[in-house]
Each structure stands twice: as structure tokens, then as C-alpha cells.
From TrEMBL:
<feature type="transmembrane region" description="Helical">
    <location>
        <begin position="147"/>
        <end position="170"/>
    </location>
</feature>
<keyword id="KW-0812">Transmembrane</keyword>
<feature type="transmembrane region" description="Helical">
    <location>
        <begin position="29"/>
        <end position="45"/>
    </location>
</feature>
<feature type="transmembrane region" description="Helical">
    <location>
        <begin position="210"/>
        <end position="231"/>
    </location>
</feature>
<protein>
    <submittedName>
        <fullName>AI-2E family transporter</fullName>
    </submittedName>
</protein>
<feature type="transmembrane region" description="Helical">
    <location>
        <begin position="269"/>
        <end position="285"/>
    </location>
</feature>
<feature type="transmembrane region" description="Helical">
    <location>
        <begin position="305"/>
        <end position="336"/>
    </location>
</feature>
<comment type="similarity">
    <text>Belongs to the autoinducer-2 exporter (AI-2E) (TC 2.A.86) family.</text>
</comment>
<keyword id="KW-0472">Membrane</keyword>
<keyword id="KW-1133">Transmembrane helix</keyword>
<dbReference type="Pfam" id="PF01594">
    <property type="entry name" value="AI-2E_transport"/>
</dbReference>
<feature type="transmembrane region" description="Helical">
    <location>
        <begin position="7"/>
        <end position="23"/>
    </location>
</feature>
<dbReference type="InterPro" id="IPR002549">
    <property type="entry name" value="AI-2E-like"/>
</dbReference>
<feature type="transmembrane region" description="Helical">
    <location>
        <begin position="237"/>
        <end position="262"/>
    </location>
</feature>
<feature type="transmembrane region" description="Helical">
    <location>
        <begin position="57"/>
        <end position="82"/>
    </location>
</feature>
Length: 363
């Protein structure tokens, strides 16, 4: 089979996959989360197998342990978090009005400091941000319904996701062997190398970036609660969980926390500075310590490409698209790097003789 035919087959396969995802996007959520959970827990199951557990018992022990931990955390923290989120949504219009009132009160000083034109621009920006925040709050119930977060949807998701994860974990080795058996024999070594690169990238996404996300949420929630910020637990968790979108979690949490801190603590501006320091300091820690240690270079995705993938998949597949965007972007990144390497090794890039053009480019 020629290289052209191979490329056409893989492109056709990807097109069919995207069409199927779009057709079944309404029912994919428990399957996507179950598959991610199985991928995440597979190393633990493999470790138990090395300790003489059967595959079935290892799967049951790992999955039951995870379910026990999740259910315990749910009953410990969800009532408090739910109360804070509901209180934040109810209080948000009041915070916006208070901020606008403070801006009007400070308008003479702001005009003197910035000048009338820039002061007017600042006031317009605050009003625009306030209207967007209120609009988001107004549409939030409808959005939750659209992604299936109704009572029946949550119950179905809660029951179906562990079942999907269990059966995928139980037959994981068989599925891997089945996929290996379908690979073309002549290209099996090369395809396995690509799959290993994809596995490393996916591990960086699901395990590494997932760990960073959870640490972010825990830190922001704890730090904001300790400084006494109203609804600090809810704001910190939301900011941390949104950090899978580049800059969005930081910007959302920073703006919301500083706005609440100004209304709550002013004229004690040191508390406002403290809230700012929490976000700015943690961004330094995340970028220079957490991310290199937990994720490293395994993802290797440009933030602009990642944001495009999130917007594109979110527009096509809704909430499920947001969950799939980062892993699929990581896979596409591996395939693009492989394609570039093959192109640079081809006569199309090197020319018929393969040497002089490359040598002249280095001189």
C-alpha cells in the first residue's frame, strides 16, 4: 500500500470518528469519563496483579476504593460547597452593584489620576464585565440542563460511569492485544512507537495535568478561606477546576476574588493585596515547580492551539467536547510531530540527492 493510500485511510478514519462523536454527543459523557477513569486507574490494577491478585479482583478492589473515597468526600464537602456556590450566585448582583457604587464614589480621584478619557473607559469596562457576569449567572441553569446536569442525568451518570470503568479495566489487556493484532505487520514497530508517544502525552494530560488541577483547586480554596474571603471555598475550587483551560482559571479566580475582596475589606487594602498575592504567587509556583514536575514536556502543546481546540470541540460537542479537547489535542500534536519528521526525511524536503540542500542550509 502506498503512503498516499495510507494517509487517505487514516484521514477517512478520523472523519468517521468525528462524525460518530457528533452524532452520539448527547450520551457520551459517562463513557468518556469512564474511559478516562479506566486509563487513570489501569497502572494501579497492574500493580495489584504483580502482587498475585487476579485481574477481576484487582479491578474490583481499585474501583471500590476510589468510589469509597469519592463518596466520602462528597458527603463531607459537597453540602458546604453547594451552599457556598448558591450563596455566591445569589450575592453576585449585590457585589456588582457595590463595585459600581465604589467606582462612582471614587470617580473624582480616578478622573484626577487617569484623566477623564481613561476613567470613562475604565467605567465602561467595569460595566461590561458586570453585565457579562450577570448574563452568565442568568443562563447558568439552562446551560446545566443542556449538558445533562439534571436530576435524572446526574443519577444516570453516577450509575453508568463506574460500570463503564469496571468493564474497560477488566478487559484492558485484551483490548490492547486486540488492537495490536489489527496493526499492519510491516508498519507495526513504527505505529507502536507513535502509540507509545501518544500514551506518554495522554498520561501527561490525564495524570499530570489532572494532578495540577486538583492541587490548584485545593490551594486556592484553602488559601482564600484562610484569609477570610467570602465564598473563598467556592471561588477557589472553581478557579482551580477551570485551570485546565490556559489562563481562564487564573483570570476568573483573580478577577472574582479581587472584586469580592474590594467590597468586603476596603479600605483595608492590605487584604486586597493579600488576595492578589495568593494568585500571583501560586502562578509562579505552578509554572516553575508543579507543571514541570508533574507534566513536564509530555504534552508539548502550544497554549494558543489548546485554546482553539477547547473552543472548537466545545462548539461541536458541548461539554463532552471540552472533556475531549485536551486529550485529542495531545494526540493530534503527536501525529503532527510524526508527520513533520517524516516530511523532513522525505525527498520532497531533502531533494532527489538528499544532501546538498541540507548542507547549504546549515552553512
Amino acid at each position: 500500500m502506498t503512503l498516499r493510500n495510507q494517509v487517505l485511510i487514516w484521514v477517512a478514519f478520523l472523519v468517521v470518528l468525528v462524525v460518530l462523536l457528533w452524532l452520539f454527543r448527547g450520551i457520551l459523557l459517562p463513557f468518556v469519563v469512564g474511559a478516562a477513569l479506566a486509563y487513570l486507574l489501569n497502572p494501579l490494577v497492574n500493580q495489584l496483579q504483580t502482587w498475585r491478585f487476579s485481574r477481576g479482583w484487582a479491578t474490583a478492589v481499585v474501583l471500590l476504593s476510589v468510589i469509597t473515597i469519592v463518596v466520602s468526600l462528597f458527603f463531607m464537602f459537597v453540602p458546604l460547597i453547594g451552599q457556598q456556590i448558591i450563596g455566591l450566585i445569589q450575592r453576585m448582583p449585590g457585589y456588582v452593584s457595590d463595585l459600581q457604587g465604589l467606582a462612582i464614589r471614587w470617580s473624582p480621584e480616578i478622573n484626577e489620576w487617569l484623566g477623564p478619557e481613561r476613567a470613562a473607559q475604565l467605567e465602561a469596562t467595569i460595566s461590561d464585565m458586570a453585565s457579562q457576569a450577570l448574563g452568565f449567572i442568568a443562563t447558568l441553569p439552562a446551560e446545566l440542563v443542556n449538558i445533562g446536569l439534571t436530576g435524572a442525568g446526574v443519577i444516570g451518570f453516577t450509575l453508568l460511569t463506574p460500570v463503564v470503568a469496571f468493564y474497560l479495566l477488566l478487559d484492558w489487556e485484551g483490548m490492547v492485544r486486540g488492537m495490536q493484532g489489527l496493526l499492519p505487520r510491516d508498519s507495526r514497530t513504527e505505529i507502536n512507537q507513535i502509540l507509545n508517544d501518544i500514551d506518554k502525552s495522554m498520561a501527561g494530560v490525564i495524570r499530570g495535568q489532572g494532578g495540577v488541577l486538583l492541587i490548584d483547586a485545593a490551594f486556592y480554596a484553602t488559601a482564600l478561606s484562610l484569609v477570610g474571603l467570602n465564598f473563598g471555598l467556592a471561588v477557589g475550587l472553581i478557579a482551580g477546576l477551570l485551570s485546565f483551560i490556559p489562563f481562564v482559571g487564573f483570570v476568573f479566580g483573580f478577577v472574582l476574588s479581587v472584586g469580592i475582596a474590594i467590597v468586603q475589606f476596603w479600605p483595608n487594602y492590605w487584604m486586597v493585596v493579600g488576595v492578589c498575592a495568593i494568585f500571583l504567587g501560586w502562578q509562579f509556583v505552578e509554572g516553575n515547580i508543579l507543571y514541570p514536575k508533574l507534566v513536564g514536556g509530555s504534552i508539548n502543546i502550544n497554549p494558543v492551539w489548546l485554546m482553539f481546540a477547547l473552543l472548537a470541540f466545545g462548539a461541536l460537542f458541548g461539554f463532552v467536547g471540552l472533556l475531549l479537547a485536551v486529550p485529542l489535542a495531545a494526540i493530534v500534536g503527536v501525529l503532527v510531530r510524526y508527520g513533520v519528521a517524516k516530511y523532513k526525511a522525505s525527498t520532497l524536503y531533502l531533494g532527489q540527492n538528499g544532501g546538498p540542500g541540507d548542507a547549504s542550509s546549515q552553512s
